[in-house]
Amino acid sequence: MIENKQIVGIVLSGGKSSRMGTEKGLVKWKGKSLIEYSVDCLRNTCKNIVVSSNKDCYDYLSLPVVADEIKDCGPIGGIYSCMKAVKADYYLVLACDVPNVPFQLFNDLLLNIGNADAIFPTDKGERGQPLISVYKASCFKVIEEELLKGNYKMMKLLGLLTTKTFSVSEELTYFNPKMLSNANSLHDINFL
Question: What is the assigned CATH class of domain 7-189?
């Protein structure tokens, strides 16, 4: 159980949105912008939330917006910049394009992280979802070292950390078959 630990939520919305054709986090789905779903999900688990973005279009959320300190290095750069800007014991990371993630998933990730540096969900034994995850503060130095070497691949980073996976299955009371589905294009929105 995670008690008396500082937990910060990081919403990743710093991508170029090239496949979406417009700012991904601002795309409306069922009456709300995609980023609002991510913020609402994290609010159920942590008080402090920051948005990783290089744009000021998210000021309306009244949350701190952290720009990438090292530009053009993908999600790893956003995670690094937010970890550097806001100190915590645990960082709940959630991309802005997965609106069906239930907050209960983050509770389970926190409860199951144990001695690992990071934990992320997997669906039916498939590849994990490192942008729906919990990272401990201990990951910061490894992330920084990889960035300084020019290594920006999330899966390579995960190979350097002690990680755990959490299997998402029908047995979970909050299960939704689309809970890990993301939207990379306007077409994808129709299938969420």
Answer: alpha beta
